[in-house]
Design a protein that fits this description.
Chains A, B: This is Phosphoserine aminotransferase. Chains A, B: It is found in: Cytoplasm. The structure is a homodimer. Chain A is an alpha/beta fold. Chain A has helices at residues 18-26, 46-63, 77-89, 103-114, 228-233, 243-259, 261-281, 308-320, 345-362, and strands at residues 7-8, 69-74, 96-100, 118-123, 146-150, 152-153, 158-159, 171-174, 191-195, 206-211, 288-289, 300-304, 323-324, 335-338. Chain A folds into two domains: 21-258, Type I PLP-dependent aspartate aminotransferase-like (Major domain) (Aspartate Aminotransferase, domain 2, 3-Layer(aba) Sandwich); 261-362, Aspartate Aminotransferase, domain 1 (Alpha-Beta Complex), CATH 3.90.1150.10. Helices cover 35% and strands 15% of the residues of chain A. Chain A starts with 6 loop residues before the first strand and ends with a helix.
Amino acid sequence: MEANRIYNFNPGPATLPLPVLKEAQAEFLNFRGSGMSILEISHRAKEYAAMQAEAKADIKELMGLGDDYEVLFMTGGASTQFAFLPLNFASKEHPGSYVLSGSFAEKAYKEAEHLGIGEIVASSKEGGYRHIPTQDELKIDENAAYVHLCYNNTIYGTEYHYIPDTKGVPLFADMSSDMLSRPIDFSKFDFIYAGVQKNLGPAGVTLVVAKKSFLEKSPEKLPTMFKYETFFKKDSLYNTPPAFNIYMVGKVAAWIKSEGGLAEMAKRNKKKADRLYGVIDASNGFYRGHAEKESRSFMNVTFRLPSEELEKTFVAEALAQGLGGVKGHRSVGGMRASIYNAMTYEGVDKLASFMEDFQKTHA
Amino acid sequence: MEANRIYNFNPGPATLPLPVLKEAQAEFLNFRGSGMSILEISHRAKEYAAMQAEAKADIKELMGLGDDYEVLFMTGGASTQFAFLPLNFASKEHPGSYVLSGSFAEKAYKEAEHLGIGEIVASSKEGGYRHIPTQDELKIDENAAYVHLCYNNTIYGTEYHYIPDTKGVPLFADMSSDMLSRPIDFSKFDFIYAGVQKNLGPAGVTLVVAKKSFLEKSPEKLPTMFKYETFFKKDSLYNTPPAFNIYMVGKVAAWIKSEGGLAEMAKRNKKKADRLYGVIDASNGFYRGHAEKESRSFMNVTFRLPSEELEKTFVAEALAQGLGGVKGHRSVGGMRASIYNAMTYEGVDKLASFMEDFQKTHA
């Protein structure tokens, strides 16, 4: 670890690859020889256009997607997509169908429901969102406009380990917290989106990767900036895009490629997750995982300690050892270690060792 | 000028103060001793909270506004505000009233019109938006929800030099291209917004400064992220904000303060504008300004040359001398020198001298 930097286990914004940060820092005053910072250059400049095109191509290559998919760069986060999706695709005749697997899945549903065009396919809310609804639990409405999933649930620490069969209904997914973390057959999804501030870059840009057929025409009645069509037809340049944020996403995508792509990310992420879940499972109940084993997330490891008092001590002592951001979300309590692509095994191993030592001292 | 950097006359994204860029570069890996980059730190962290609060306070102080105003950080640019304004404030009974003074003013109107709740107060479209409509030209509808202005018209190079009397109708303004460029009695406005990528920071955050009475309650029917109320009640932290972009806006605001505030910015901007308009006015018609004199912008100086051939030569020769981004918008043609706060007099003087030399060679 670089001097003065901590291991950052925050859920998002989250740690970014240090080589990417250093590269951006080095070229901060002069982007690609333009004589301008990436913060200053026109989004109509050829240097900008080349960068954005490369970012898009790298993302599609990593996802193994072809010409029938397009990459858009939008803003407003997943929370804004929660409204855009029903506005663009659902109707009273063809509602949006939602699988509730956590807080964000629920928020997505609520926006559709608020518009009177949402319905629930399945929910694991009872019991505190400890598992991902299984295929058997899904009551697919074949008349729905789409089935919407939240593929990884940051707060609860659960993640899909299968791709639901939706009986031909278009499959939409919020992948904000596990996008590009492992190989998935992305071609089974019709519409994927992600706030980038977990695995992909700094907060401020929303990545959309979707079948072109869902992007090329939007309801005429919508305002210009609410239509996917606007972003699709203008290559995300109808108005000024968040250029720096896109540039960073491009750098992170290039870094993932250079490190070995999604297969390598998956290998590393599994190794990191196994290390932490291993400590939890060997702790004789000192650490209690929130997620059921078969739904455990590779990205967010959630667990409780025997008391809230000990949890406070844990957070403080961890930070003193340079392990930051381990406090869990208030709706689950306890701890959460977010171990996205950019978190090193070194950092995870240090946290795991700290957990082992902490148990010895406090059990 | 720093080695390898050009004078950047782009209309936005645009040049930023070099000391601000250098400061951000120096602390890029470690924000306020947190051990994390500003790109990585949680938006719930105390270091982030302090930064955002300082940015808000500095902006309000520069604008001379009190407790009845609030600062919001949103996304989607002015183009998204064009839809949010009528959705939040206008109705068939109380339409949004628009003064058309250029392309963006027109786009703002079109979103309201598309929703069936917009009307036109005045327009200077005839003649190619060469002037700002005067008080006498405004047909105020006293039943309107608001009167909307675009205070500086980037494309046409025109700017308001008076604050319209709206007969008590709330006054709204898009100040994307002249926000914090000079002292204005901002308290006469009820709602001000700005895409920051011209005078205030990198693209990716939209600054809203408005009377609290317009923010504290929004129509219940709107999606969460379309309501100003959501941003107001959660201090712009309902979802993850574009943290880095806000941080840069804060740095630029602090820089403006440290340089002497809006009075000093106005003095510098006037000196820069005078230098360029002086060359145009002394050119015996070689350079022809687009804007009528009384509507000239201090931010964007637009002018034509005798032929399109010469205009092409001008752009190329300027760039060869390190003067970039002087090509005008296609709808006006010719040249546009954008000389926002961060453009130095040195850069403007170099452009002015180049213009004088160019005329001598090519007249």
